[in-house]
Design brief:
Keywords: Lyase. This is Altronate dehydratase small subunit. One of its GO terms (molecular function) is lyase activity. There is one protein chain. The protein is built from no helices and nine strands. It is an all-beta fold. The protein has one domain: Archaeosine Trna-guanine Transglycosylase, Chain: A, domain 4. The strands form two sheets. A six-stranded mixed beta sheet has the order 4-3-1-2-5-8, with no helix packed on it. A three-stranded antiparallel beta sheet has the order 6-7-9, with no helix packed on it. A hairpin with a 2-residue loop joins strand 6 and strand 7. The chain is globular.
Length: 95
């Protein structure tokens, strides 16, 4: 039986979810919103607990949504299942 890790989606507008446990590259991750599984992705990276995982492909320049709010902009292409962090996003507050 396949073991799934979990990440929570905080708002339906979001394109990232938050890992609730550490995730290893290759792990199957279920995305939970409102106590329902809304997506499944395979992790492309090791992701620390409380860090973000992309739930859709995100192009360079696309806005990153968490809590239904813009939290940054992609500086690199981010594939589904990839870690979303300071190495591939930038603040929109200083631009």
């Amino acid at each position: 039986m396949t073991e799934f890790k979990k990440a929570i989606l905080l708002n339906r507008k979001d394109n990232v979810a938050t890992a609730i446990l550490p995730i290893k590259k290759g792990d199957n991750v279920v995305i939970i919103y409102n106590n329902e599984v809304v997506a499944e992705v395979i992790s492309q990276d090791d992701i620390d607990m409380y860090h973000k995982i992309a739930i859709t492909p995100i192009k360079v320049g696309d806005l990153i949504y968490k809590y239904g709010e813009v939290i940054g902009r992609a500086t690199d292409y981010i594939n589904t299942g990839q870690h979303v962090h300071v190495n591939n996003i930038e603040s929109v507050m200083t631009k």
